[in-house]
Amino acid sequence: MNDRITTEVDGVSLSLSNLHKPLFPSGFTKGELISYYVEVADAMLPHLRGRAVTRVRFPNGTSAQSFFEKNAPAGAPEWVRTLDVATSAGSVNYVLAEDRATLAWLANLAAVELHTPQWRAEHANVGPDGVILEGEDEPRSTTLIVDLDPGPGITPADSAKGAILAATLLAQLGLEAFPKTSGNKGLQLSVPIAPTPASRVFAFAGSLAKALAAAHPKLFIATMSKEARSGLIFVDYAQNLAARNTVTAYSVRGLDEPSVATPLTWDEVGALTPETRLRTSPAELLERLGRYGDLWAAQVSTPDSPALPDPLT
């Protein structure tokens, strides 16, 4: 049964369908996904502003095939804002999710996951085919991402130790790190910085990863070889490339049950144990927002954000 309804979100008319269709084996429905994104919008939208959104869509649920979608889909409403980005494969017309109605529309398309780059449109140069990703006119990133990807045998307590060590090194360089879960197994640190050429941020992130691996070889690894990651945390610095993206704070993940990429306090990171489950349901996330507010509110880059240091040697 296609339970299609027409509703309004902040004055925008939306046609929604299949609201009772389960998107997760746990029974979580598309209607619940839409409702979550509408409710979390006030906290999530500041982190999406000006960022090209790559979506992971699960049209038949998370137990079936998914696909990454970059171009705005055919038939997108005229009110959906987009951003052209020049790539080696041609111009890509990304969606900009900057209002509650767009989040609801994307969720109605079963776009469970939302991923974004570290730069915003306001800090990008535009050529004939869109935002220029390489060369002197490359985007200026406003965040540095330290993605701590746990290999086999790494526990949440190990990830917490890694996050604290990485944040301590960053603090010694005058940079403040904000932690979140990836929504699955790992932790990620986001660091607000003054707008900086993406290639320079990537170089710094690579040097940071290598410095951590050199100082703590029994905990970190900076190489991408999956075979070498057992018992180690891979510091995935490639997510700082202008063409790459990272799961956005408050995005749902397409797992067996809905789990949200969740900002944490450092006290919560320090309290992680080997048995801690690094998953937060949408309902739990909304309850956290009521208790803590947006823990990442200060993570948004401002004119006072620090300059990125030179790469570590």
TrEMBL record:
- Which InterPro entries does this chain map to? LigD_pol_dom, NHEJ_LigD
Q: Name one Pfam family in it.
A: LigD_Prim-Pol
- Which segments constitute the DNA ligase D polymerase domain? 29-296
Q: What is this protein called?
A: DNA ligase D polymerase domain-containing protein
Tell me the organism.
Tessaracoccus aquimaris
